[in-house]
Each structure stands twice: as C-alpha cells, then as structure tokens.
Amino acid sequence: MSLLEIKNLKKKYGEFEALKGLNFSVNAGEIVALLGKNGAGKTTLLNSIAGYIYPTSGDILYKGETLLKSENRLNEFGILIEPTFIPYLNAHDNLDILLKITGIYDDEENIDELLTEVGLKNKTREKTRAYSFGMKQRLGLAQALLNKPQFLILDEPFVGLDPIGKEIFKKIIIQKAREEKVGILFSSHDLEDVEEICDRIVLIDGGEKKFDGVMEYTKTYIAEYVSSNDENKTEKLETEDQDEFMEVLLTLKSSGVKIINLDIRKSSLYDLFKDG
After folding, report:
1. String of b and e for 164-197 (b: at least 16 CB within 10 Å)?
2. pTM score, whole prediction
C-alpha cells in the first residue's frame, strides 16, 4: 500500500481550476520530485496535502486514511512551505517553543542535533531576524524534522541555498528516505538537484499530470557529412543505436566521405520540463 495517495484531486478558485483531477502516490522511502512551470499547481497541491487549503473534490489518503476528515495524521508530517519564525527569538528557542506546543518540554538534545545537522550549530543563539534567506531555509528544515516525521513535504527546498547548504539538504533528504523510510515529496525548479536525488518525477502543467515515472536518459548520436551525390549539400545521421552509428561512420570514412561534425545529444530533465 502506498504511504500517500492523491486521488482525483481538484481545486477551483471561482472559475479557475488550479488542480484538475490529479492522481499519483508516494511510497515509504521514496523521493518524488514535483515539477512544473510557475502556476502549474505545485504549491496548491502541497498546501492541500499539508491541510492549509481544502480541495474542491477528490481525496488525499495517508496510510489508507483520508486526511480531509481527520488531520490527526498530519502529526506524522514534516512540512517546509514558507517557514515562519518569531524574529526576536533565536533558532534554538524557536524550535523549543514548537516542541512545547506539541506537549514536549524537555528535548534539548534533539534540538541541538537538528541544528547541527542543518549546519546552524554556530548560529543557534542568534536571533532569527538577522538570518539570511538561506539560513531560514536551514532552520525551516530543522523545524520540519522536529517531530521525527514519516512523510516530508518540501516546497522549493533548495531556493536561496549556497552549494554547501544544498549538499546538506540533499544528504538529509537521501538519509531520511533510505535509512528511515520516510516518504518525501518536494517541488523544485533546480533540475540538476532533482536529477541527483529523486527516485521518480511527477510533472504537472495547468493543474494536470503530464508525466509520472522514472526519467530514462537516452543518447542520440549525430553525424553531419558531405553528400556523396552533391558535394554542395550536407546530410545528417541521427540514431540512438551506438553500434549503427559506428558502422555508418566506418562506411563513410572508407568511402572517403568528408565528415563535418560529430555530436552526442543527451536527453535531460530540462527537455521534459520545457515540453511539459
């Protein structure tokens, strides 16, 4: 059984349909990247799962139970969507207050471990109003991990992070999925980071799902050469078969045909994102 299931989810704002019957699932220990252009419906979807907005129709199931009628299961979620903090308190005290709200009054060790894990060990006593955007993102991740979640929702987690911050985030995301079997759904425009850590891609456009699966990469081998019939014209060979490509190249070379250009074009997430 899937950990999280999105079933025919729709959301309308007046006549505008932000979500148009989305269906997909996320398994325990799986990292799923949610891709789409601005306005595709990604944030609306994540906010619906997090309980911040109520969908028009459809259902969201977690461990087989609907989240739309009972939000108790959201206690098992860690959420990073526009994190907010009390600006006149430091990082440690912001997390401590959240723990107290949930009824936990003594978990100093967990707070210190989280702040160290996200790279804020030396900034724990600094008021959050002085934090940069990237530091707030790091604290937001610590906030999302505070309750030892079984499912993580991350909206553009890599925005504002420097290379070190990105590596910290990626390491934590992979560790949570692989070692603790946390299900993870995150949106991002950073395609290189998506390629590096995700197990599966869900692409949406205009509130509709356009692709759901593992991105398979292909290589297209290209050779441009002078036509054997007319030296003023060029011909082009494009094939995904490397053996065929090498065979044709050897034939052209043995025939004395002039090869103008050789190239290898690799399919990428960018192509999928652009065409979505």
Report:
1. ebbebbbebbeebbeeeebbbbbbbeebebbeeb
2. 0.80
